[in-house]
Design brief:
Elements lengths: L1 H24 L7 H14 L4 H15 L5 H13 L4 H41 L6 H33 L3 H20 L4 H18 L7 H5 L2 H5 L7 H14 L8 H12 L5 H13 L7 H33 L3 H6 L1 H20 L1 H5 L7 H14 L4 H17 L5
């Protein structure tokens, strides 16, 4: 009897041990802040290629190699970040760090992810925006700038399939998708300063349409949470206040791909406040593409043009602060955010408008060309991206190299 009891007890004890071991494997190991700083700094240094590269690097590190997160949790993080305004890949990097060490890890990881690209882009800003840069610098800027409209078109094309799938199979929803995209394109090409209001309006209209049809009940609180952003006045404040407003639009009111910041900033930076010329703005966009880290760091170049290093740092702080706030406040409820019907409806309206806005930005960007040779170079980059299907970074580097050769050959740049 005693032997049988010991056998049963040992069996139950072993079974309990296996259960505890299996459950403990589901709990991520506590990761030191030093490890987060080192790994997220590394990602910030090698993260060339924009959000797709950042997501792939984060997945490889957090899910496949270190196994800090399981695949489903990581995919849920991507889905929730895509529903939030601002740079999605940066928010995903902050979320992954938050998952490992809470608020301290999120802040440290986010800063380390952003810092390398910020430092590099501010150094390059000082070179490219100098009063009398060398002729080869001017050539590189003009060459890379000529590729920017093609890069914008490529970004819009890349966002189109997922946005179209969100619309579903309903003919009415697909028709609205086309209308939102056209409205976004026209707004980006003609009324850049008010593009934020157009994006918000498209999202709110889609919420109202789905609520009226009973497909997506929109609570008053969830809708009114979006209205204050639309009510923000776009009057010219001047000085650092204007710079902070432009950076805030980029960080808190931009939905969709990182390239939507281009039409959001261009009119303010070039026409309204005259911080930079149209050609210099093309350079700023190119620098944001060829440097590692978030594409939103383009705002640092605009900030530098407005008020030197202090302006660049202010612009970066204001542009990225909302991402930290969104993740720190929302990360514990990412599951609810991801499945929230109102947020899904809003993105179904604002998303196609963003795609259209990015495509429409190619028109004002192309109008900033100041040399004839930039036009055939643009055509060549379009072939490079859409026919040969090579990468964005390589297209910008190649276009910049061609610009240097043109400048050294004595052709006007």
């Amino acid at each position: 009897m005693l032997a049988r009891f010991e056998g049963v007890s040992r069996s139950r004890f072993n079974k309990l041990g296996r259960v505890l071991e299996r459950n403990s494997a589901d709990i991520p190991k506590r990761v030191s802040l030093a490890t987060i700083a080192r790994e997220w700094l590394r990602l910030g240094c090698i993260g060339f290629g924009g959000p797709p590269t950042h997501i792939a690097l984060l997945r490889r590190m957090c899910v496949e190699q270190r196994r800090w997160l399981d695949a489903q949790e990581f995919e849920d993080g991507i889905a929730a970040a895509n529903l939030l305004p601002g740079p999605a890949s940066t928010q995903l990097a902050i979320f992954c760090a938050w998952r490992l060490r809470g608020a301290a890890g999120a802040i440290l990881g986010g800063v380390c992810f952003i810092a390398p690209g910020m430092v590099l882009i501010l150094v390059l800003s000082a070179v490219f925006l100098a009063s009398h840069p060398p002729v080869w610098i001017l050539g590189a800027a003009a060459g890379a700038g000529a590729a920017v409209p093609a890069v914008a078109l490529h970004a819009a094309w890349g966002l189109t399939p997922s946005s179209w799938r969100r619309a579903g199979t309903s003919r009415a929803a697909q028709s609205r998708w086309v209308v939102y995209a056209v409205v976004g394109a026209v707004a980006a090409a003609t009324i850049g300063p008010y593009l934020v209001l157009v994006l918000l309006a498209c999202g709110l209209i889609e919420i109202a349409v789905r609520a009226q049809r009973g497909g997506s009940p929109a609570s008053p609180g969830s809708i009114t949470a979006l209205i204050p952003a639309a009510a923000v006045r776009t009057i010219a404040l001047g000085g650092l206040g204007a710079l902070a407003w432009v950076a805030f639009k980029v960080g808190a009111l931009s939905y969709g791909g990182g390239f939507v910041i281009v039409p959001l900033m261009q009119h303010d930076a070039v026409t309204t406040y005259h911080w930079m010329t149209g050609g210099q703005f093309l350079d700023a966009v190119a620098l944001g593409q060829i440097t590692p880290g978030p594409v939103v760091l383009t705002v640092a170049v605009v900030g530098y043009a407005a008020s030197g290093i202090a302006g660049g740092l202010l612009a970066v702080f204001v542009a990225f602060a909302p991402s930290f706030v969104f993740v720190l406040a929302g990360a514990p409820r990412f599951d609810q955010i991801r499945t929230n019907a109102t947020m899904q409806s809003f993105l179904s309206g604002a998303g196609p408008a963003v795609v259209g806005a990015i495509a429409g930005s190619t028109i004002p960007l192309g109008l900033e060309f100041h040399e004839v040779w930039q036009i055939p170079l643009l055509v060549g980059v379009i072939v490079w991206l859409f026919v040969i299907r090579r990468g964005v970074v390589s297209s910008l580097v190649l276009a910049g190299a061609i610009g240097v050769a043109v400048a050294l050959a004595g052709v006007a740049v």
